[in-house]
Amino acid sequence: MTAPGTSGASPHPAARRGRDRRARSLPPRPGAPRIDGPRPTTAVVGGGIAGLAAATALAERGVRVTLYEREPYLGGRAGGWPVDLKDGSRVTMSRGFHAFFRQYYNLRGLLRRTDPGLRRLTGLPDYPLRHSSGLRDSFRHVPRTPPWSALGFAALSPSFGMRDLRAMNAVAALPLLDVRVPEVYERLDGTSAHDFLEAVRFPRMARHLAFEVFSRSFFADPRELSAAEMVLMFHIYFLGSAEGLLFDVPRAPYPAALWNPLAEYARRHGAEVRTGTAVEHIAHTPDGAYTLTAGGEERRHDTVVLALDAAGLRSLVGRSDRLGDARWRERIQLLRAAPPFLVSRLWLDRPVDPGRPGFLGTSGYGGLDNVSVLERWEDEAARWAARTGGSVVELHAYAVPPDATPEVEQKRLVEELHRVYPETRHASVVDVRHEWRADCPLFPVGGYADRPTVRTPEPGLVLAGDLVRTDLPVALMERAATSGFLAANALLERWGVRGQTLWTVPDRGRGVALRALARLGSR
Length: 523
Description:
The chain has about 525 residues and is of the alpha+beta class. It contains 17 helices and 22 strands. It has helices at about 15, 50-60, 105-110, 150-155, 160-165, 170-175, 185-190, 195-200, 205-215, 225-240, 255-270, 310-320, 325-335, 380-390, 405-420, 475-495, 510-520, and strands spanning about 25, 40-45, 65-70, 80-85, 90-95, 100, 120-125, 130, 135, 245-250, 270-275, 280-285, 290-295, 295-300, 305, 340-350, 360-365, 370-375, 390-395, 430-435, 460-465, 500-505. The strands form 6 sheets. Strands 9-8-17-18-19-16-20 form a 7-stranded mixed sheet. The protein has a 5-stranded parallel sheet with strand order 11-3-2-15-21, covered by helices on one side. Strands 6-10-7 form a 3-stranded antiparallel sheet. Strand 2, helix 2 and strand 3 (about 65-70) form a beta-alpha-beta unit. Helix 2 runs parallel beside helix 16 (about 475-495) and helix 3 crosses helix 16. The longest helix has 19 residues, at about 475-495.
């Protein structure tokens, strides 16, 4: 038996599934364990989570992989890069906090390649939520097994009152009880997340503290987000999975904890990792392969994985005007990015109160969506804080209006921090970094049918990334990792090689009675 996360064939299922015995296994098609004969070549364009998953699975099985990444670092939106602070410290900046939930079976399986026990991750003790009205919610004591998870949250949450519960439209809420993919899109993709919550008459305060946490995880306003995506999130984290809503975070900055070790692992399996190298053009060869122009040179590859964000994919496909067919190219050009988001990281000269949580979700504080105190878990930040007596604080604002003035929003975010943690009013800022980005995929109302899938009109060309339609109950970083493995599996099938076994949360509601209720509501 292969040791968990080391190479080749899938490890023992328990290494992927976690605690939920109803998690779903998706074995690949039968085939040989590795390439037998001449080794085909694959170009993986994009070194984020999806590209790393595809490159890893292919290289493990003997494919000659070249991974191209435009940035000088790997990890995509979960990447990091060095910066020098005004006090002379060299630290790692990133695009902000990411929660590694226990439902992320395939992402965690990818990380096990270099960290079988996931010791480079550490669990945060709670997932606290706070509203400016004073209401607070927590998932620490909420049961993990559905339906007790939802009932427990309602019972423990101060944002749920008996009057609110009686006012809810139970019939409108029934789709939450039996979420299936792709059926959930057929039923709810034409409705916005906001309108769905209005129809359910979900309590206003509970909506801010619970559902909007999910919808804003997509960096989108609930009025623009497909209700199907939000309901799917509710299934993944709440009513469909027994893993719960607590999560892990890396003990070190993303490059050191995750991506540099994985890059070395891929190299040991023969992959070439080319960071700082943008792919400029892709053309067909007469024998059905591809020529990639990157870094001022052309290379031939038998197959290609495109693991890019929406703008990058649109741009590269637009420049490579013979890829796919006309309809497929139209679908690529329809991809949209979510509104801009802001990550502000402050190095303060005095500590945040030691009783503050490492992570806090917020609502009602202007544009502030969450606050992280990095030295609570990250070793680099902890060393800086110990040496200076200060704190490293990170602020997130999702779905910022596109016409917002950056300097004004940055100032407002710090002002909201002072409201949330008043002791920070008296701290001086040693240094600050503001990251503005607008490259997360938008899942708009009615957009599911046009979303591209892993497979394209060309068997040798596949897509990966969190923008890709997988028809599986996955989202965010887990969707990226899952799509990367699916892309690798699609290519491996061509060569008769067995791909990666995948896991997901259950693909339907947890109980027979709940599923029956949901069916009654759909009639």
